[in-house]
């Protein structure tokens, strides 16, 4: 039995932010490899003249840092210990929360359930780390933990042992998740404003072998992607 750390982030999740696409993503690896992988990220930062404590974010991608972010992407795809799953909701305006008697916050955590459920295996144990949003979200995090455990008959939480909120500057692998979902969000929002960002998206396409606009196979292990459609719940 192995123990895995899962690092989750999201982009444009607010209901009325005026942005159509919502994206969630998770990077995961064996817990035993997490320290080594995090140190490798810090070394890449240093090699590019950045502080080891520099916080990687998709919003910080620029021509001056393009080579650094390109190396991080290549490093991810060349690291057999690392895996990614992303879920894209292309158009939040199509959501009909009233029909399902839910609030947008509840839908948000349902999407996290959709993101995570295919990652789990009955033979392994997991700790899930979420990018902290606000002080009110802990109650919803506990509800997510309960929902995930109940769905797997893990009533004693032997498999999904922990869901914890952390700040992204504390975890390099959470920053990698931010980078990858930022690329997906940029693509699905149809943005074209940054050549550096477009080039990084093309690099992800090359390494993954996918267009990033369609679902991958459900059991794709390295770069797994679901483009969620509202009609699935109708």
What does this structure look like?
It comes from Methylomonas koyamae. InterPro entries: DUF3800. This is DUF3800 domain-containing protein. It is built from six helices and six strands; from the N terminus they run ββααβαβαβααβ. The protein has 234 residues and is α/β, with parallel strands linked by helices. The chain has a single domain, classed as Ribonuclease H-like superfamily/Ribonuclease H (Nucleotidyltransferase, domain 5). Strands 5-4-1-2-3-6 form a six-stranded mixed β-sheet, sandwiched between helices. The model has no long low-confidence stretch (mean pLDDT 87).
Compact description:
The protein is α/β, with parallel strands linked by helices and 234 residues long. 38% of the residues lie in helices and 19% in strands.
Mean pLDDT equals 87
Q: Can you write the helix and strand succession as a string?
A: EEHHEHEHEHHE
Shape: globular
CATH topology: Nucleotidyltransferase, domain 5
Total count of helical runs of at least 4 residues: 6
Helix content: 25-40%
Structural class: alpha/beta
Characterize the main sheet.
Answer: 6 strands, mixed
CATH class: Alpha Beta
Distance linking N and C termini: 39 Å
> What Rg is obtained from the alpha carbons, in whole angstroms?
17 Å
In the CATH hierarchy, the architecture is 2-Layer Sandwich
Number of domains: 1
Strand order within the widest beta sheet: 5-4-1-2-3-6
CATH homologous superfamily grouping: Ribonuclease H-like superfamily/Ribonuclease H
Please count the beta strands (DSSP E, at least 2 residues each). Answer: 6
Question: Spans with pLDDT under 50 lasting ≥5 residues?
Answer: none
Strand fraction band?
Answer: 15-25%
InterPro entries: DUF3800
Protein name: DUF3800 domain-containing protein
């Amino acid at each position: 039995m192995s123990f895995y750390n899962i690092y989750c982030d999201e982009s444009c999740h607010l209901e009325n932010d005026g942005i159509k696409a919502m994206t969630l993503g998770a990077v995961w690896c064996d817990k035993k490899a997490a320290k080594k992988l995090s140190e490798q990220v810090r070394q890449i930062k240093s090699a590019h003249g950045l502080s080891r404590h520099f916080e990687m974010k998709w919003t910080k991608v620029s021509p001056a840092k393009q080579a650094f972010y390109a190396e991080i992407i290549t490093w991810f795809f060349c690291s057999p210990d690392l895996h990614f799953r992303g879920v894209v909701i292309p158009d939040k305006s199509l959501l009909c929360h009233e029909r399902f008697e839910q609030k947008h916050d509840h839908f948000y955590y349902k999407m996290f359930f959709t993101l995570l459920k295919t990652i789990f295996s009955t033979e392994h144990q997991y700790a899930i780390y979420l990018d902290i949003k606000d002080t009110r979200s802990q109650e919803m995090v506990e509800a997510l933990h309960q929902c995930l455990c109940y769905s797997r008959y893990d009533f004693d939480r032997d498999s999904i042992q922990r869901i914890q909120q952390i700040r992204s500057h504390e975890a390099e692998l959470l920053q990698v998740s931010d980078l990858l979902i930022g690329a997906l969000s940029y693509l699905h929002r149809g943005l074209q404003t940054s050549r550096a960002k477009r080039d990084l998206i093309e690099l992800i396409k090359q390494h993954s072998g996918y267009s990033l606009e369609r679902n991958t196979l459900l059991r794709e292990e390295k770069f797994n992607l679901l483009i969620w459609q509202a009609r699935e719940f109708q």
